[in-house]
Amino acid sequence: MRVRLSGQSVHNELVRRVEEYSGQDLMACYQCGKCAAGCPVAFAMDMLPSQVIRFVQLGLVDRLLDSKTIWLCAACQTCYTRCPKGVDLSRIMEALREIVMFEKGSYINYDAISPRDVMEWPQQAFIGGFRKYAV
Ligand code: SF4
Ligand code: SF4
Question: Could you say which of 14, 69, 130, 131 would form a disulfide bridge with 61 (CB–CB 3.0 to 4.6 Å)?
Fold first, then answer.
């Protein structure tokens, strides 16, 4: 893949939004790969966690927005505990999901949830689902 880099392209609007929403120092990552090596969901991802942050560093956020990885991340924070630079990738994944949902809307149809569902579904399902699939 050929990438043309410039100061403007690596600090574009989407990169600034990822930085703002995640609160992470994106340039701290030096690509050691410890996050990807420890991620329990990496086997199912189409991009490894270390690749996700590399793409962000290169200003290629638009190429991440169709990735399965940002939705598969379980926010378990294994990567955060392993990262020698203290990068919390789960926050970066969340920021990327937010960018998608600000464009396309939440993935939860609140009107389709009946009072009976509210009574019967585990509270964790609501909290986890709303946190991940709604803005
Ligand atoms: S563990 Fe941290 S420094 Fe290493 S590749 Fe992952 S995010 Fe980057
Ligand atoms: S927080 Fe996400 S990216 Fe990090 S180890 Fe867990 S599932 Fe993988």
Answer: 14
